[in-house]
């Protein structure tokens, strides 16, 4: 079993605080005063990540009908966008051909600045596909739901 875990901490002054309850619970498994090795990096935005996946699902459900027919799941649309926009990794196959696969968007593998560039490019491509920018419409509908 690995003794390494990645948890998100929020800085307040010179003190780091666990963001989620489970992360605080994990910290409590260490004795008080225990020294921990910490690698500092900026966390990816959970809000932006949720907006990305919510937007894709919303476009499939509410955007032009052909999009939902061609890509019935957000994962499918995400993969197609990544390949179309060049966010790929290339794999040499045993037969000699080289194929492009979507690059990982995991928080550990795609830093925030790269995801920002991808999100902007994906939004532009979705705007072309829908003939309008779906992001403000999606966000407005979300605000309407929470206000109701």
Topology:
Blueprint: E1 9-12, E2 15-18, H1 21-27, H2 46-62, H3 65-70, H4 74-85, E3 88-92, E4 98-102, H5 112-130, H6 134-147
Antiparallel strand pairs: 1-2, 3-4
Protein name: Mll7976 protein
The CATH homologous superfamily name of the largest domain equals NinB
Poorly predicted regions are none
Number of helices: 6
The CATH topology of the largest domain is NinB fold
CATH architecture of the largest domain: Orthogonal Bundle
Shape estimate? globular
**How many individual β-strands?**
4
What's the average pLDDT? 89
Organism: Mesorhizobium japonicum (strain LMG 29417 / CECT 9101 / MAFF 303099) (Mesorhizobium loti (strain MAFF 303099))
Protein name: Mll7976 protein
Question: Nutshell version of this structure?
Answer:
The chain is of the alpha+beta class and 148 residues long.
Describe what this molecule looks like in 3D:
The protein has 148 residues and is of the alpha+beta class. It has two domains: 1-40, no CATH class; 46-147, NinB (NinB fold). The protein has six helices and four strands. The protein has a two-stranded antiparallel ribbon. Strands 3-4 form a two-stranded antiparallel sheet. The mean pLDDT is 89.
Features:
148 residues, single chain, 6 helices, 12% strand, alpha+beta, NinB fold, globular, 51% helix, two-stranded antiparallel sheet, 2 domains
């Amino acid at each position: 079993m690995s003794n390494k875990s990645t948890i998100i901490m929020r800085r307040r002054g010179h003190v780091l605080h666990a963001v989620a309850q489970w992360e605080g619970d994990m910290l409590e498994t260490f004795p008080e005063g225990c020294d921990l090795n910490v690698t500092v990096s900026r966390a990816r935005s959970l809000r932006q990540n949720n907006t990305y996946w919510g937007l894709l699902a919303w476009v499939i459900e509410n955007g032009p009908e052909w999009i939902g027919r061609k890509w019935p799941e957000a994962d499918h649309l995400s993969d197609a966008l990544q390949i179309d926009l060049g966010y790929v990794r290339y794999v040499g196959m045993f037969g000699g051909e080289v194929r492009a696969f979507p690059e990982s968007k995991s928080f550990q593998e795609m830093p925030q600045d790269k995801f920002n560039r991808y999100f902007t490019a994906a939004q532009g491509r979705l705007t072309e596909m829908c003939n309008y920018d779906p992001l403000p419409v999606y966000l407005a509908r979300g605000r309407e739901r929470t206000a109701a």
